[in-house]
């Protein structure tokens, strides 16, 4: 996809980078959940494929994936999702993108209509799913400064600074944190397109 079309926006097309945040340790899952399979496909592959429909390119943040644009956490490893988001923002800023659409590697569904709801003026996140969001590249310096100045690597601390719009999507987005979450989603599959 060459660019994301945002209805009603003065700039009819924006270059958007997708970011799959994949640097977590999967403590609650007990093994590498990014590689856990749902209907025969790894969760990370599903997240990449779904997000790809809404962006020009997708970066995997926090881990190396063969054949994919892979970005190490910035400024160093083990910063959680913010290290991956920071890497994506700086890559986007350096390559002419307007912003980053982010999702977690444990979120195998990113409905195409969600991109148009998120992309706009300033940052935006999905209510209850703080890793699913839109981040303008103008936030790159602020996130760098936050990670340098604070030991609080929580998403909540970053949201207090970024002050994103909160988007009520309606249909719940599947989020896999435990083997039980995966088993429950397998029972519902294939009704996981976010349309309810």
Automatic annotation (TrEMBL):
Q: Which residues form the MobA-like NTP transferase domain?
A: 18-160
Please name the InterPro entries in this protein's record. MobA-like_NTP_Trfase, Molybde_CF_guanTrfase, Nucleotide-diphossugar_trans
Where is it localised?
A: Cytoplasm
Cofactor(s) recorded in Swiss-Prot or TrEMBL: Mg(2+)
Keywords recorded for this protein, A-Z? Cytoplasm, GTP-binding, Magnesium, Metal-binding, Molybdenum cofactor biosynthesis, Nucleotide-binding, Nucleotidyltransferase, Transferase
Residue positions annotated to bind GTP are 21-23, 33, 78, 106
Major location, coarse class? cytoplasm
GO MF terms listed in the record are: molybdenum cofactor guanylyltransferase activity
Could you tell me which HAMAP family the record lists for this protein? MobA (MF_00316)
Q: Which family does it belong to?
A: Belongs to the MobA family.
Q: What is known of its domains?
A: The N-terminal domain determines nucleotide recognition and specific binding, while the C-terminal domain determines the specific binding to the target protein.
Name of the molecule in the record: Molybdenum cofactor guanylyltransferase
Which organism is this protein's natural source?
A: Sphingomonas oligophenolica
């Amino acid at each position: 996809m060459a660019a994301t079309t945002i209805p009603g926006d003065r700039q009819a097309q924006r270059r958007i980078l997708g970011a799959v945040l994949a640097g977590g340790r999967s403590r609650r899952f007990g093994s590498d959940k990014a590689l856990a399979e749902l209907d025969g496909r790894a969760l990370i592959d599903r997240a990449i494929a779904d997000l790809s429909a809404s962006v020009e390119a997708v970066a995997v943040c926090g881990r190396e994936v063969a054949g994919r644009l892979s970005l190490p956490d910035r400024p160093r490893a083990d910063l959680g999702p913010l290290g991956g988001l920071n890497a994506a923002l700086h890559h986007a800023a350096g390559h002419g993108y307007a912003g980053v659409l982010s999702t977690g590697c444990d979120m195998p569904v990113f409905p195409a209509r969600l991109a148009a709801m998120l992309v706009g003026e300033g940052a935006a996140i999905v209510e209850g799913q703080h890793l699913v969001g839109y981040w303008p590249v103008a936030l790159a310096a602020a996130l760098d400064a936050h990670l340098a100045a604070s030991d609080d690597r929580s998403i909540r601390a970053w949201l207090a600074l970024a002050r994103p719009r909160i988007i009520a999507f309606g249909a719940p987005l599947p989020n896999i944190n435990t083997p039980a979450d995966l088993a429950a989603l397998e029972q519902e599959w294939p009704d996981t397109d976010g349309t309810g």
